[in-house]
Specification:
The chain is of the alpha/beta class. The protein has two domains: 4-127 and 308-325, Nucleotidyltransferase, domain 5 (2-Layer Sandwich); 134-303, Nucleotidyltransferase, domain 5 (2-Layer Sandwich), CATH 3.30.420. It is built from ten helices and ten strands. The strands form two sheets. The protein has a five-stranded mixed β-sheet with strand order 3-2-1-4-5, with helices on both faces. The chain has a five-stranded mixed β-sheet with strand order 8-7-6-9-10. The chain starts with a strand and ends in a 31-residue tail after the last helix. The chain binds 5'-O-[(R)-(carboxyoxy)(hydroxy)phosphoryl]adenosine and zinc ion. Zinc ion binds next to helix 4. The site of zinc ion has 4 residues, from helix 4.
């Protein structure tokens, strides 16, 4: 295998247009460029992501973002070894933009093309900065997904638990909206929370004592909705944010404990590693609580740096790098996959009537 490998990564599954170039040299991974263009201004007035507008924005920007990523990296485009692009899960109109762009570059340069699962990007994101060996326990907390997974190897996942309704990021965003914070409000909740009384409102923790390490946030959201209708002052809003943040932390700690036990049952290696990734992993208070708890439970906690928690293309290139080393390439007719679970054998656990 070549000593130096250079991968171009592309991400367009939702509302971030991103291109990155990473390099592995003598077993050391380095991000050479990592450009992320967020579409916050495009979607702000609608209070959420509008797929058609998101796709248009990807189309308008992807050339420029790619040019900048290539220029910043100081790599000649013909010197890259492969092109990796997100193929799913996500909004099909958005996925198609980055996927087709990636296929076109790969084809024109006559380089291998690698289709990447966006969730696998989050799962491998800490590998951009830390050496981590498989297996490890992953808590993926993003805007669309909330899962505990045993990451046994590249492309080899066993789901231990999942949300049966809303994703955690979604719960943060909805709570922010109800409190009157402008889209995208999720990240602002922790700032509000710092100013409030976390014991002011007693919020529910759905399925906290059942369902193993599966999670549920819909009941919590409904409780926030009811309280938000009654409160008026800024102080009360801070209190609600603080109570929500505290409740989420308690739910995560309790479910993490169960996931630790599940993971340990099947872990033959001496080390227990716990990776926390996805947009919500940039919540500093959640990081602090999970870090402390992991160390108490003899798990080594690993978080991606803050800029690699939310959507980016360096994590897509990281999966591309691992797949490249295994010569795991894809044909140019690889489809965009709006739904694409990491553990495809796990049963669907969503909606009313789910048996836990
Ligand atoms: O991973 P990500 O960038 O996109 C998806 O793949 O979904 O995650 C975005 C989610 C959003 O719901 C956003 O509100 C949430 O991550 N998020 C946060 C914070 N920063 C981003 N939630 C809580 N606290 C934060 N600091
Ligand atoms: Zn994501």
């Amino acid at each position: 295998m070549k000593r130096k490998i250079t991968i171009l990564g592309i991400e367009s599954s939702c509302d971030e247009t991103a291109v990155s170039i990473i390099e592995e040299n003598n077993n050391k991974t380095k991000i050479l460029s990592n450009i992320v263009s967020s579409q916050v201004d495009v979607h702000k007035e609608f209070g959420g992501v509008v797929p058609e507008l998101a796709a248009r924005s990807h189309i308008e920007k992807i050339d420029l973002i790619a040019k900048k990523a290539i220029a910043d990296s100081n790599v000649k485009i013909e010197d890259i070894d492969a092109v990796a692009a997100t193929a799913g899960p996500g909004l099909i109109v958005c996925l198609s933009v980055g996927l087709n762009f990636g296929k076109t570059i790969a084809c024109s340069l006559n380089k291998p093309f690698i289709a990447v699962n966006h969730l696998e990007g989050h799962a491998l994101s800490p590998k951009l900065n830390s050496k981590i060996n498989y297996p490890y326990l992953l808590l993926l907390i993003s805007g669309g997904h909330t899962q505990f997974l045993n990451v046994k190897g590249l492309g080899n996942y066993k789901r231990l638990g999942t949300t049966i309704d809303d994703a955690l990021g979604e719960a943060f965003d909805k709570t922010a909206k109800l409190i009157g914070i402008e889209f995208p409000g999720g990240p602002k909740i922790e700032e509000y929370a710092k100013l409030g009384d976390k014991n002011k409102f007693n919020l529910p923790k759905p399925i906290i004592n059942k369902g193993g390490c599966n999670l549920s946030f819909a009941g919590l959201k409904t409780a926030v909705l009811k309280i938000s209708k009654k409160i008026k002052t800024k102080k009360e809003k801070y209190d609600l944010a603080a109570s929500f943040q505290k409740t989420v932390e308690e739910i995560l700690l309790k479910k993490t404990k169960i996931a630790f036990n599940e993971f340990k049952k099947n872990n033959l290696s001496k080390k227990n590693i716990f990776v926390i990734a996805g947009g919500v992993a940039s919540n500093k208070q959640i990081r602090k609580k999970l870090e402390k708890f992991s160390l108490e439970e003899k798990f080594e906690p690993i978080f991606p740096p803050l800029n690699l928690c939310s959507d980016n293309a360096a994590m897509i290139a990281m999966v591309g790098l691992e797949k490249f080393k295994k010569k795991n390439f894809n044909k140019l007719d690889y489809p965009a996959k709006p739904r694409w679970a990491l553990d495809e054998k796990a049963i669907f656990l969503k909606g009313a009537g789910v048996k836990l």
